Amino acid sequence: MSFGWIDAEQFSFNTLLLMDRWIFRTIAKNQHPEFKKNLAIALAGNPTVFWYVVSKCPEQREYYHVLVGEAPTNHSREELRDSEVYVLDALDWAVVYVYPNIMENLPYIKDWDKDRLLSITDFNDKTVLDIGSGTGRLAFAAATVARTVFASEPVDRLREYMREKQKRLEVDNIYVIDGTIEMLPFPNESFDIVVSGHVLGDDYEAEWREMSRVTRPGGYVIVCPGEDDRKKPEGPSEELISLGFEYSHYVSKTGGDVCRYWRQKR
Ligand SMILES: C[S@@+](CC[C@H](N)C(=O)[O-])C[C@H]1O[C@@H](n2cnc3c(N)ncnc32)[C@H](O)[C@@H]1O
């Protein structure tokens, strides 16, 4: 499935050479038959990229070797390019991670207003963690009032982008670090507020446990998505509500439904 975020025709398949290990782990989970067929053809036709993928992500070496071993053969140059474009389009979420300037200009980030975060609770003088910061939408918003913000992000290029943005905007209370939500590199009860946007979803319960672990009693865990042009008749996230989150809904500038969620740690 593609978000329609890029014109895949404009990208070389070598874009995968910019990607991080955890991205190849995630790609290996995509069992959609059409995606797997096109990925197999594209990797078989690009031996350097294939070498990079299996070297960077040895835990999935076997998976990628089997996949490429089963790739249909005898395709033309045009068919190879069609497969590359199919894969790049399906991986648009990962392509934008390695082109942060494109990511920063996606409507969910560009059209978003920082008061959507700052109105949820009092950030004044607080110590905040933003998990999966991306280009820093939530981290930079929190940093306008918080004492200290840790921006944790597993993509190398996005970490560098945030560090450059800090210099450009002269923001000195953000610390950019590596890390994933599965295992946050902090002791228990380190933060007053833990925020995140568009990161949870693989395993809500485990993600909540880890976010809660690093939050001080009385502190807040917040899930704050960006703007959205999609109407959501299904309503707020059942998973977050069943975990005890409260929420508030607003109609986005881009016409869709957005819910922000928070839960105070007792
Ligand atoms: C859709 S982007 C959202 C970026 C930012 N939170 C925002 O809302 O503007 C998702 C971000 O989460 C990061 N990410 C993906 N999986 C993650 C995980 N398991 N743990 C932490 N971060 C993750 C990605 O690298 C990416 O920067």
Radius of gyration: 20 Å
Write down how many β-strands occur, each being a DSSP E stretch of 2 or more residues.
7
Oligomeric form? single chain
**Strands of the largest sheet, in order across it?**
3-2-1-4-5-7-6
Q: Spell out the CATH superfamily of the largest domain.
A: Vaccinia Virus protein VP39
CATH architecture of the largest domain: 3-Layer(aba) Sandwich
Major beta sheet summary: 7 strands, mixed
Q: Mean pLDDT score, rounded?
A: 97
CATH class of the largest domain: Alpha Beta
Which ions, cofactors or small ligands are bound in this entry?
S-adenosylmethionine
Give the domain tally: 2
What class do helices, strands and sheet pairing give?
Answer: alpha/beta
Provide a compact summary of the structure.
With 266 residues, the protein is α/β, with parallel strands linked by helices.
Report on the structure:
It is a single chain. The mean pLDDT is 97. The chain has a seven-stranded mixed β-sheet with strand order 3-2-1-4-5-7-6, sandwiched between helices. Helix 2 packs across helix 4, helix 2 crosses helix 5 and helix 3 runs antiparallel to helix 4 (61-69). Helix 11 links the parallel strand 2 and strand 3 (174-177). It is of the alpha/beta class and 266 residues long. The protein starts with 20 loop residues before the first helix and ends with a strand. The protein has helices at 21-27, 33-44, 47-56, 61-69, 77-90, 92-97, 100-104, 107-110, 115-118, 137-143, 156-169, 204-213, 238-242, and strands at 127-131, 148-152, 174-177, 191-196, 215-223, 246-251, 257-264. The relative contact order is 0.11. The longest helix has 14 residues, at 77-90. The chain contains 13 helices and seven strands. It is elongated, with a radius of gyration of 20 Å. The protein folds into two domains: 8-98, no CATH class; 107-264, Rossmann fold (3-Layer(aba) Sandwich), CATH 3.40.50. S-adenosylmethionine binds next to helix 10.
